[in-house]
Amino acid sequence: MTPAPYTPSDAPAAHRCATLKGVLLVTVLALGISQAAALPLFVQLGLSPLILGIVAGAFVGNVLKDRLPACYAQGIHFCARALLRVAVALFGLRISLQEIAHVGWPGLVISLLVISSTLAIGLWCGMKLLGLDRETALLTAAGSAICGAAAVLAFESALRSAPHKSAVAVGSVVLFGTASMFFYPFLIQAGWLHLDAQTAGLWLGGTLHEVAQVVGAASTLGPDASHVATIVKMTRVMLLVPVLLLVGLWISRTPKSGLASGKGRLTVPWFAFGFLALVAVNSLEVLPLSLREAVNGLDTFALTMAMTALGMETRFEQIRHAGPRVLAMGAILNVWLFGGGLAITLAVQRLLG
Predict the structure, then answer these.
(1) Known InterPro entries for this protein (predicted)?
(2) Phi and psi for 6 in degrees, rounded to 5?
(3) pTM of the model
């Protein structure tokens, strides 16, 4: 029997099939990455599935770049964009206003000062001192200032920047955040820094990059420091959306920004408001704990898929071009977070503690 001729009505079905293949590939990779992230070695290093996802994704994407069928690109791009936005919105279920209020004004003021100063220093150093484009400088500064890879993902989705810019920004966050996770507690335990549990928790939560890094570092200092550090860190996470809105307003006033959108403005999409809405829902305590834990687990996996897809869209030659300058910027920001962040913490504690 002669096969039926192709008609335009077949196009949507073919498109969905191609997208599904790419999504399934990313899902399988993310499953393996999630299993690997649970190994004791990676747990001790504080390397979350998100971090391993972008590394593994970049490796697979570059090794298979000439062997992977072109149709898979649609599904990979879907995971790196649409799925990413849903996952960032769901991140709001991890935060409640009650937890933030528990730490009080010191935690909020430290978070605001650390975020604003780190973003300002990062943009100035990245663009003026190191000659980076605004997207790369902003992604790297946001990752250092707010919440590591999750902040890079949120800004990347709003900026619609090239995948390699997110990859180098995440690389900087991983390198310096992981080093700080071990270095900060060592200084305290060795007696080089004399900080009580409250102050240590405020400092760690206010300056370390990733949520996992904060938890790992603070857990070595006892439950009191760990509790304070986690809440302060989640306060910084909650400030992600207000910062997106303010940065978007700033960029919209500078038309010649050179952003990927070509319109000179940062688009703040629906996921930002979804994030805030879910923070409010979580604060009302209307959802069962089991449901919130299940959604948070799915959200972590969705973020892992998004990071894996971003890595697969990244090419090593693009990273090599900006890598050294981004690492230099990350080093400068890490020095500021250590010294400047400690000074901010002590000053706020003295005034408001």
Answers:
(1) UPF0324_pro, UPF0324_YeiH-like
(2) -70, 135
(3) 0.72
